[in-house]
Amino acid sequence: MNKAVTSKEEILEVSRSIAASKGITAVNMRTVASECGIALGSLYNYFTSKAELLSATVEAVWADIFPIDKISKDCENIIEYLKVLLESAEESKQHYPQFFSMHALSFAAGDKREGRKVMEEYFQKMKHQMLIFLENDKKTRAHIFTEQLSEKVYVDYIFTLFLSILFDERADRGAFLEFVKNYLY
User: Fold this and answer.
1) E strand or H helix at 106, and its extent?
2) Residues 6+ apart with CB under 8 A from 170
3) How many CB atoms lie within 10 A of CB 37?
4) Of the candidates 93, 87, 92, 84, which has an alpha carbon nearest to the alpha carbon of residue 65?
5) On the CB side of 49, how many CA atoms lie within 13 Å of its CA?
6) Is the domain of 121 the same as that of 164?
7) Range of the domain at 30
8) Residue 115 to residue 52: CA distance in whole angstroms
9) Which terminal Cβ of the chain has fewer Cβ within 10 Å, N or C?
10) Does 80 lie in the same domain as 27?
11) 2: helix, coil or strand?
12) Nearest to 162 by CA among 148, 153, 172
């Protein structure tokens, strides 16, 4: 018999596993409780609603796809960081099929705000890391940033392009990296 799951982290591990094998839309209170080997009521001690469980699961999946702290240790500049993020996203498509297109749809209408908030918080962490790499990149041409086009504004634009590439299967990742390189160097 399976050992019953007894922590929030273990529940999220099971939820990520369900998202990987059946899709994010399969993550719900009953399925997670069953897979964890705990009573449905016990799951509510950890997550008060399906929306809370989904939000935590989406955040956990984003963290699994883009382990920011681990990725940042392997990079020296923003180009390397973006390349590793793109590679990580590509690898995750096999592990989490349709996650990029389906995670926003998995929230009920009233819960979309919470789902968006969780996603935005994780995206802010990613953008912050991009900004750090950009500010510390010694190869960047002098005087390319101005008051109007600051490093932060540039990162916002690059991140928007990055997201569009994640959601568009036909997007040319190499061209995106070349575009960033050509402006910076």
Assistant:
1) none
2) none
3) 14
4) 92
5) 9
6) yes
7) 8-49
8) 9
9) N
10) no
11) coil
12) 172
